[in-house]
Design goal:
858 residues; alpha+beta; Alpha-Beta Plaits; 4-stranded antiparallel beta sheet; 3-stranded antiparallel beta sheet; 27 helices; 8% strand; V-type proton ATPase subunit a; transmembrane helix; V-ATPase_116kDa_su
Length: 858
């Protein structure tokens, strides 16, 4: 709660902290009826003027380059950066007046420039009309070969004998001349011929230099035309046709002397007009040069003021006390900083009544807020694209930081290709300061934004490449093979290869069969493990609940889901690991199939007691399905009846609790019922809840099968990547090397191009999308994460290095903190207030001018 006079500086201080998300207190009030709508409209109008100035600057290529460098220099618009004049030199009202003056001046300059350009175009067109008409009237010197008949613009309009015959008959020919767009000439001639029924003679000639359109500034090709005809009625008709084609008609003297004198006058006017246009352009350019260095700062200030008034419109205005009352969310760790900022805003405004901060218990669920940095923000965005965890739920992004690049590496695993991918990521990280904030091409922007994801993907690809023992599809004999050639057969030396696959398998007759078995099994293993981790995340979310729904979800959801998954697919993983450690040669898949089709019979047992174990696991799997399906709707119905009975006695509780705990427990039950579409006020629809539970159970049972099969994409893409790499190496590079040095050079270029284009670009994108799908569909849906609102704090950053600012340095909870302000007296008051408020918890120190012990402590 704050006085209305202190609202603006207080919101400014809170915005610089960037840790508060304000809640709209007037959701049913139109934006046009809010208290500060006039101020917001002023900001919108100023933003429109700034956009107008930017558009004018972008019309000049050199100035546009300067503006883009300032806009995309990697500095946030809301930071106190390069340009410090916005708050010191110009106030908000002065800036509004300045923008109004600049807009009017530029508009007047544009109007004058358009008028001058239109006059200049008319003079240029008249010049060409006079020149071309002189040719049409045979008043130019003809070339030596003019006697031969041609159809160019320099050919005689009428032959000499024809002209004499026309003069004897007393026939007088009239003409109309002008200029028209070149692309309209053919259609114009056809219409003219049909309208006059062929009683005209027309000539045209293209103007060599393009004419600039005064409105758009584009270059337009135009053509001079002249039409000869007889009669006044045809003259009116031809002029109307010319005007319909937007032609510019000009008067041309009949005599050669008149045309010459008019041409001289036109040339003189063109020279004078060129001088005026050039001076007008210089004036406009100088005006824009003065704007281009300041417009980024102006835009920052306007956007900041707009965000401040937009936040103030969310507050509730108390008419009686003349104060604003707002609600918002903030991290608990930021309470101390908010209180200091409130006192700073009160001091800056000069009001006597301080702002009041009260911590209240909210009725709605808080938004989700995860602290991220540039290293993990990309992984958080990957998870948020699927759904945001609810407040105090497990954040799957923590696990995604490792599992996402690892699953990618299982499909892309190769030491050589991983090194190339790692080099690209390292290059982007090295150029981070230069490229941040710049406008990049989409093909560059996407990998640059995910440079740290690429970095981990490259590292894990190298690691998995060592496991697969492949470097550009070539095996690496690092530790020495465990097999020895003995005649035509390979003999095992009774020693295991220390790390990864033995290189002898690469190129062996059964290479494909071995790698298929190996990669298929590890795909299933890691798939079941990741799905289990997702179910464990749901358990952690259930434990976060406080009412009886916690135990209902654990016993009717988590436990039967784990039992079902591990009774079937967990047991299959156990058989895979057991087969790797025992001399068992049969396939595992028939054993799993027979486990369902013939529960009591086993053809070849792997271990003793296998028949009894499989029977017990099969019974557990079948029992877990009705446990997931039936108990939860019945228990929810019972809880509902218990709550209705408590309400009839004047209580609102759940599970025997009261007060705040009881309300939270009831809220959790109501949320579960609402998600099942079974809670309608005072009614509980058992059928809706049961149908929802049936769908959820079927989805999990069928999803457990389909999701496990979906992880086989790890095997398929890994095999495809390896085979493509082998083909490129053997068929392109190796074949070229054996064909001679010249072809070897060409083959290396072709191999490198294929490797970069296919394996590093197409295969990388394919493996990335498949890893994304595995996390969204197979992993995240197991953690029971619901889409929730993300915490969005209004933020205006503090100055990173401003010599005009003063900073208060204090220590709180073992951390060094800073408070920055340009007002020296305000900083002194804050030091006094902080000493009295913190009571020795922090020792504030005023630093003047701005400085820090460690620049990273921003």
């Amino acid at each position: 709660m704050k006085q209305i006079e202190a609202a603006h500086p207080t919101i400014d201080e809170l915005g610089r902290l960037g840790i508060i998300e304000f809640v709209d207190q007037n959701p049913h009030v139109s934006m046009f009826q809010r208290y500060f709508v006039n101020e917001v409209n002023r900001c919108v109008n100023m933003e429109r003027k700034i956009n107008f100035l930017e558009n004018e600057i972008f019309k000049d290529k050199k100035l546009a380059a300067i503006l883009e460098r300032n806009m995309y220099s990697g500095v946030d618009l809301f930071s106190y950066d390069v340009l410090q004049m916005t708050e010191m030199d110009l106030g908000f009202n002065e800036l509004e007046t300045r923008l109004e003056e600049l807009e009017n001046e530029l508009k007047q300059i544009n109007i004058n420039a358009e008028s001058l350009q239109r006059n200049y175009n008319e003079l240029i067109e008249i010049q060409h009309v006079l020149t071309k008409d002189a040719i049409f009237f045979q008043e130019q010197n003809l070339n030596d070969d003019s006697e031969r008949k041609d159809h160019s613009a320099k050919s005689p309009l009428l032959q000499e004998d024809t002209l004499v015959e026309v003069q004897k008959q007393g026939v007088k020919l009239s003409f109309v001349t002008g200029v028209m767009n070149t692309d309209r000439i053919p259609q114009f001639q056809r219409v003219l011929w049909r309208a006059t029924r062929g009683n005209n003679f027309s000539k045209d000639s293209i103007i060599d230099e393009p004419i600039i359109d005064p409105k758009t500034g584009d270059e337009v090709n135009k053509t001079v035309f002249i039409v000869f005809f007889q009669g006044e009625r045809l003259e009116d008709k031809i002029k109307k046709i010319c005007l319909s084609f937007e032609a510019n008609l000009y008067e041309c003297p009949d005599s050669s002397y008149g045309r010459t004198r008019l041409l001289e006058k036109i040339m003189g006017r063109i020279m004078d007009l060129n001088i005026v246009i050039e001076r007008s352009r210089e004036h406009r350019k100088q005006l824009l040069i003065n704007i281009v260095e300041k417009i980024v700062g102006w835009k920052r200030k306007v956007l900041k003021e707009k965000s401040i008034y937009h936040s103030m419109n969310k507050f509730d205005y108390d008419v009686g006390r003349k104060c604003l009352i707002g609600r918002g969310w903030c991290p608990k760790t930021g309470i101390e900083e908010i209180q200091v900022a409130l006192r700073a805003g009160t001091t800056k405004s000069g009001v006597m009544v301080p702002s009041v901060l009260s911590v209240i218990r909210p009725n709605e669920e808080p938004p989700t807020h995860f602290e991220t940095n540039k290293y993990v923000s990309a992984f958080q965005q990957i998870v948020n694209a699927y759904g945001v965890a609810k407040y105090r739920e497990v954040n799957p992004a923590v696990m995604t930081i490792i599992t996402f690049p690892f699953l990618f590496a299982l499909m892309f695993g190769d030491v050589g290709h991983g090194l190339m991918l790692l080099a690209v990521a390292v290059a982007f990280i090295k150029m981070e300061k230069n490229l941040s904030g710049k406008k990049l091409n989409e093909l560059v922007q996407m990998p640059f934004d995910g440079r740290y994801v690429l970095f981990l993907m490259g590292l894990f690809s190298i690691y998995v490449g060592f496991i697969y023992n492949e470097c550009f599809a070539i095996p690496m004999d690092i530790f020495g093979t465990s097999w020895k050639q003995n005649g035509k057969h390979m003999v095992f030396q009774n020693q295991t290869y220390p790390f990864g696959v033995d290189p002898v398998w690469k190129g062996a007759p059964n290479e494909l069969e071995y790698y298929n078995s190996f990669k298929m099994k590890i795909s299933v293993l890691f798939g079941v493990i990741q799905m289990t981790v997702g179910i464990v995340f749901s358990l952690m979310n259930y434990l976060n609940m406080k009412g009886p729904m916690k135990w209902i979800n654990i016993f009717t959801q988590f436990i039967p889901q784990v039992v079902f998954l591990w009774s079937i697919f967990g047991y299959m993983c156990f058989l895979i690991l057991l087969k790797w450690g025992s001399p068992y040669d049969d396939y595992i898949l028939p054993t799993i199939i027979d486990m369902f089709l013939s529960p009591g019979s086993i053809k070849t047992p792997i271990y003793s007691g296998q028949q009894g174990v499989q029977t017990i696991l099969l019974i557990l799997a079948f029992i877990s399905v009705p446990v997931m399906l039936i108990p939860k709707p019945l228990l929810m119905k019972k809880l509902y009846e218990k709550e209705m009975e408590a309400k009839s006695h004047g209580y609102h509780l759940q599970g025997g609790g009261g007060g705040e705990s009881g309300e939270e427990e009831a809220g959790e039950f109501e949320e579960e019922a609402l998600e099942a579409d079974g809670h309608h006020g005072d009614r509980f629809e058992m059928s809706d809840v049961f149908v929802h539970q049936v769908i959820h159970t079927i989805e999990f049972v069928l999803g457990a099968i389909s999701n496990t099969a979906s992880y086989l994409r790890l095997w398929a893409l890994s095999l495809a990547h390896s085979e493509l790499s082998t083909v490129f190496w053997n068929r392109i590079l190796t074949a070229g090397i054996y064909s001679g040095p010249f072809l070897a050079f060409i083959a290396f270029g072709a191999w490198l191009g294929a490797t970069i284009g296919v394996l590093l670009m197409m295969e990388t994108l394919s493996a990335f999308l498949h890893a994304l799908r595995l996390h969204w569909v197979e992993f995240n849906n197991k953690s029971d994460a619901k889409r929730k609102e993300v915490y969005k704090a209004a933020k205006v950053k503090a100055p990173p290095d401003d010599p005009n600012s003063y900073v208060i340095k204090y220590y709180l909870d073992g951390e060094t903190k800073y408070y920055i302000n340009r007002d020296f007296n305000a900083c002194l008051n804050i030091v006094t207030i902080a000493e009295a408020y913190l009571k020795g918890k922090a020792r504030p120190t005023l630093l003047c001018p701005f400085k820090k012990d460690n620049p990273e402590d921003d």
